[in-house]
Design a protein that fits this description.
With 221 residues, the chain is α/β, with parallel strands linked by helices. The chain has helices spanning 15-26, 61-66, 77-83, 109-113, 125-135, 151-154, 169-172, 193-198, 200-220, and strands spanning 7-12, 43-46, 51-56, 72-76, 88-92, 98-104, 118-122, 140-144, 160-165, 177-185, 187-191. The protein binds 1-O-pyrophosphono-5-O-phosphono-alpha-D-ribofuranose (PRP).
């Protein structure tokens, strides 16, 4: 009976959403309505497959999924760690691979080694707090920023930053380096805990097909 109900996907806006949609395409899940990039519609429907999709700000995706406004979500591991919502993380989708790192000017290395009380600028205060306080036992002052975090050490707002490093070019172009690696990151599929029970068959089928597509792709490479 579950198949009469729509399954709703929340996708993090931007690069991840495009890659998520092409991965869903690989397993036959399409949404033609979304191809019209000029559309201002917020919710897109595939009537045949009984699926709905909406795009949301990355940090809001786990919120929609926790409350059941979306059954499934695609979002970066950084956002999952930072938001710490009650959702199941069921699959590493592989794309959007990058690292969460402590970065700064090379001379900041000694501040870290000596466990000095330093200022840390970041978009990810929960991840930074967990790393410094719980894993390193180092007392730091956290400064929350909303973007262009690399500016922190350049304008002497902070000693170091905790931020995402993908290609490393933002760091290089600004004379900064990776000082410590916190964890690897990539896009993940998350599922609402109730939906996982109520729509088990459809959701498990979907996870299986996505895993097979991922494994197939790895074998081809
Ligand atoms: C992210 C991140 C770094 C940059 C890293 O920023 O915060 O600034 O990408 O990528 P790279 O290692 O390939 O240079 P984003 O572009 O999302 O914008 P933001 O700085 O406004 O957060």
């Amino acid at each position: 009976m579950g198949s009469d109900r729509y399954l709703t996907f929340a996708l993090g806006k931007g690069r991840l959403a495009d890659k998520a949609l092409s991965m869903l395409n690989q397993i036959g899940i399409t949404c033609r309505e979304m191809d019209d990039k000029s559309s201002r519609k917020l919710i897109f429907v595939n009537e045949e497959l009984k699926l709905k999709f909406f795009l949301a700000k990355g940090p809001d995706v786990p919120t929609y999924v926790e409350y059941g406004a979306a059954d499934l979500g695609v979002v970066g591991k950084d956002t999952i760690l930072e938001e710490n919502r009650r959702v199941y993380e069921v699959l590493d989708l592989g794309f959007g691979a990058c690292r969460m790192c402590v970065c700064g000017p090379p001379e900041a290395q000694t501040l870290l080694q000596n466990h000095e009380r330093i200022r840390v600028a970041t978009k990810y205060p929960n991840i930074a707090r967990d790393y410094f306080h719980n894993k390193k036992n180092q007392t730091v002052d956290l400064i929350k920023l909303n973007g262009s975090v690399e500016l922190g050490p350049l304008v002497s707002l902070s000693d170091v930053i905790v931020d995402i490093v993908e290609t490393g070019s933002t760091l290089r172009e600004n004379g900064l380096v990776v000082l410590e690696e916190i964890c690897p990151l990539s896009a993940r599929l998350i599922v609402n805990q109730v939906s996982m029970q109520m729509e088990a068959e459809r959701i498990r089928g979907l996870i299986r097909e996505l895993s097979e597509a991922l494994n197939g792709r790895r074998m081809v490479k």
